[in-house]
Amino acid sequence: MAPPDAAADHTADTAARRLLARAARASRGRLALPVALGLAATLAAIAQAWLIARLLAALLGLGPAGWAELAGAAALALLSLGLGLAQERAQQAAGEAAKARLRADAFARLLAAGPLDPRPVGERTALVVDRIEALEGYFARWLPAALLALLAPALVAGAAALAEPASGLTLLGAGLLVPLVQAASGIGAAQAARRQFDALQRLSGRFLDRMRGLPTLVLFNRQEAEAASLGAAAHELRRRTMRVLRVAFLSSAGMELIAAGALALLALRHGAALAAAASAATAGPADADQAAATARALFVLLLVPAFFAPLRGFAAAYHERLAARGAAAALAPLLDEAGPAAGPQGLLLAEVPPKVTVTFQDVRLTYDPARPPALDGLSFRVLPGETLVLTGPSGAGKTSVLRLLMGFVRPDEGRIAINGRDITLLHPAELRRLSAYVGQRAHLFRATLRENIRLARPGATDAAVEAAARAAGVLQFAAALPQGLDTLVGEGGFGLSGGQAQRVAVARAFLRDAPLVLLDEPTAHLDPGTEAELWESLRRLCVGRTAIIASHARAARTGALPGARVLEIAGGRALGAARIAGT
Amino acid sequence: MRRDLTRVLAELWRGHALRLGAGAAAAAAVALLGLALLALAGLGVAGTARAGGAAAPAGLAAAGLVSGLAALALLRPLVLLRPLARYAERLVSHAATFRALADTRLWFFRRLAERLPAGLGLRRAGDLLGRLVADVEALDGLYLRALVPGAAALAAVLAIGLLLGAVAPGLAAWVALPLAFALLAPLALAPGAARAAEAAAAAQGGLRAAVVDPLTGLEDTLAANAEERAARRVAEAGAELAAAQRRLAARGAWGGALGGLLTQAAMLGALAWGLAAGPAGVAPALLGLFLAVAAAETLGLMPRAGAALAAAAAAARRLFQAADQPPPVAEPAAPPALLPRGHAIRIRGLRFAWTPDRPPVFDGLDLDVPEGARVAILGPSGSGKSTLAALLLKLAAPQAGSIALGGAALDTLPAALVRSRIACLTQDARLFDDTIAANLRLAAPEADDAALWRALEAARIAELVRALPKGLATRCGEAGARFSGGQARRLALARALLSPAPVLILDEPAAGLDAATERDFLATLDSATAGRSVILIVHRLIGVERPTRILRLIGGRAIPATG
Fold it and tell me: Which residues cross the membrane (chain A) (predicted)?
């Protein structure tokens, strides 16, 4: 990745901030409870400090206090522990809700982005899992901690000011220093956090990719070399993590310094008062005024930890905020793309028409301006019941036609219509309801064969699934498997050959029973025997439906599809008019 | 639990013992420094009180308290020292941790490569990714949240016990006992959190798998309008994770509350002892109070480590579970007695079945591939053509019979040696998300660009690569997503041809080629494979291959055939 310049940095940071602010608004309602509980705990701590101050004064012989105060302090200790427990629970709930919302949104966007998303799956997974998990701290800890850091120290300083105004002011001044120190130590932290997450994302992407191709690596004896590259990625993550932590540690060290300084200042200030009280006590029995003054002085000193406790929480959560900002930087563009609603817009389909006519009119499509267009003014029409075979060399634009009809991309120019209606008006998911699709390499999910076929129509009965499996020739090989159609296959079809996996995909297409059949070189990597058998099934699939098939010339020529029209394309244009296969 | 964690320390982190030990020692030193500061203040109090004697203990004690606090102020350089020392300690311990974690990730990948050479099987890629990312990360709890604070807490408890024990043994019990309980609490609490920790670790793997699977098969997910189902599965996995995290967090919070309770008990205990002891006890009570305050930060967090320990143990178990799979073919225990001379392959009486309950793929297979021979092996799909490649590459071991490479028995040779002699274009050969050049150089890391181009020419894909704006530096995308299926297959073929191995197994090398290119490729295979043995696994011959032998796999045996 090229080093991003300062402007891009700034944009990423702003976008991240905006995303978090937007999400925070949505979860504002859940903040009140943890903050209220935190404030109650602070009040308990103030009361406890007062009781202990009186106890200490009594121990020093300056005033009456005893077991009652001790019992009170113990009760207050129990109360604030209980409040702390309740606060933690409430915060956790706030984090959960925000995470669930953002994860659902991000995942929906990734699905909508479609198969042309160039990011490796591992990186996209890191977006939906690791980055969203990292946001939890923002909602669960940072937001309540930031609010508490404003309110709770004010309460404590107020209590101190009641006892002795100057001490209250001293605490307040120390409190004001805290955000300054945080901000100063946080300079450059946002960038460090962003880079940490980028490093994690790269590691995930690389690992998942290499993991999937482990056999290839092992067969070439390259696992050690790959381990070295993965090691470089892992240590890169370590370095980035340490850079972020250095900032976090610096800020908490700054925090501790301020707390120690404040304690020292107050100790110096009240040292004189306490000394006076002490000498008076030595001279004779202490009077009530002196006793009260001593207790007040001790009270102020004991308030110091109570004052800094929420600020400590703030300093700790400041790190979570930085992490969340770093995590949100890459999420922001994903979640922002099309405004508030998830994914692209479009009309819904009232019902799936039984027959479809597909028209391409002067369609142009360019993926990358630096390269020639994929489609350069392509026109054709396919009538109901007709099969159109698109042939041509690799890169001629065959796959692009299918991608357009699947709604994975939209045309730059020209018109694509189904039954006379422009398909770009439809929501892409609705467009896909019209078609059954078999790609070059069907993906089988980790599930039974039956479930893999039923993917195409979740409501289908067992009988319908079996009929589809029979039509596609799945039953033929499933019969030899230990559990037939209920045999579990691994991700990517482990346990099946390439040809068998393609048959499962064809069974899906049969079960789907859609009016439009789209086939993208479904036999490209199969051996000729398997290929011929598969075409047999595919031909039956196309009967009575509108079919568009991207295929090698071989399949069309060898009569796999008698009666089909063949359109040869090259460079994104049709070469002449369509002709009938076999002629 | 203990066994898994011990194994992490003794096996995975052994090389980091020095750094990790230094971090723990630094934490203990910082804790003692904090204690020393407050003890100095406290001793000031105690000292003054003792000097005053019984006559006016209270007043002098008050003066002592003041002088103690003043000492604190005067010791400002020392006060500053503590945050700085803590900063340094955290840097040292965290740097050591993340170094150990990075190496743990490496170890995990190596183990997987060693134990899953034939692929992931029924394992979920997303779950394995979760183990590498999240489970390895959770191991940090073992060190950062248990061992490091544990070292600090142990030092603090010992110091407090000794110091107070010397002044007033009764007081020492009041203060040090609750703190000692806090120190030991994680060991008592961890087993209770174990189930929640295991559920959380499994749930994060499940969430990743729920995300990875539909994204990997995104085309098919979308084609089936299965977006909502996939999203629901992710939401469910997310909810499951959240529920497990909530339970684990609750365990942690209870631990935190217990820590607060015990440190408060120590502080209030010092005060109570003072109240009960009367005037003579004021000074020791104050010392005890100061020490309890000083130790509160270190020990208050200690019981929370119970949940972290449980999480680390659950993560460790998941790592070992995946990493301890037995490899499909065990490496020979001793170095080979006989190194292969040449690379002739000789198979005798081979019997192999993938599982005992399935019919054998081979039953009495005999096959010879002399050096430089070109053997075509024909057979319908399912006749065991790919299984033969797996056996030759030591991805599986035969149940009976023998395979010899250059006269040396295959089972006595290390897999790496075999694979350096035999290269294979498998059915599932995969391109990685890297440049074309890097993908090709997997087969021959030292190959120069000219060699890459020769291989691309031979695989009939050079023209296409030359037309790409970035040429050899073009990235292939995951699984070659940047290219069509046929193009990706040809790049994989070029990679196999580039390999310097003297034996080449080409499993359907012409798949993805159109008829004319296929004929052209097979006719010129000679020059591409110059002098190497080639095992051509094909469905049928088209007449231009000129094999030295043709065999058909039927009923688990190789029968000589004629095209």
Answer: 31-53, 65-86, 142-163, 169-193, 247-268, 297-315
CB-based contacts of B278: which residues, under 8 Å, 6+ apart?
none
Residue A264: the pLDDT is 78
Does residue A443 contact residue A502 with C-beta atoms inside 8 Å?
no
| Residue A106 covered by a domain | yes
Residues of A in contact with B89 (CB under 8 A): none
Say which CATH number the domain at A279 has. Answer: 1.20.1560.10
CA dist., res. B190 & res. B187, Å (int): 6
Q: What is the ipTM of this complex?
A: 0.89
Residue B127 pLDDT level (bands cut at 50, 70, 90) = very high
Give residue A178's domain range: 30-335
Mean pLDDT of all residues belonging to chain A: 86
Domain for residue A60, yes or no?
yes
- Best of B97, B132, B219, B258 to disrupt the A interface (most A CBs within 10 Å) is B219
B38-84 pLDDT, tens digit each: 777 666 555 444 444 333 444 445 555 555 555 555 555 666 788 88
Residue A243 CB contacts under 8 Å (≥ 6 apart), including other chains = A192, A195, A196
A573 falls within a domain? yes
Interchain CB distance below 8 Å, A204 and B128 = no
pLDDT digits (tens, 9 = 90+) for A306-348: 899 899 888 888 888 888 988 998 888 888 755 444 456 777 8
Q: Are B105 and B138 in contact (CB under 8 A)?
A: no
CB pairs under 8 A between A and B: 436
Same-domain check for residues A473 and A330: no
Among A279, A301, A335, the domain boundary falls at A335
Q: From the CB of residue B356, how many other CB atoms can be counted at a distance below 10 Å? A: 7
Q: What are phi and psi of A361, to 5 degrees?
A: -130, 105
Residues 6 or more apart in contact with residue A347 via CB below 8 angstroms: A425, A426, A427, A430
Residues B231, A107: contact at Cβ < 8 Å?
yes
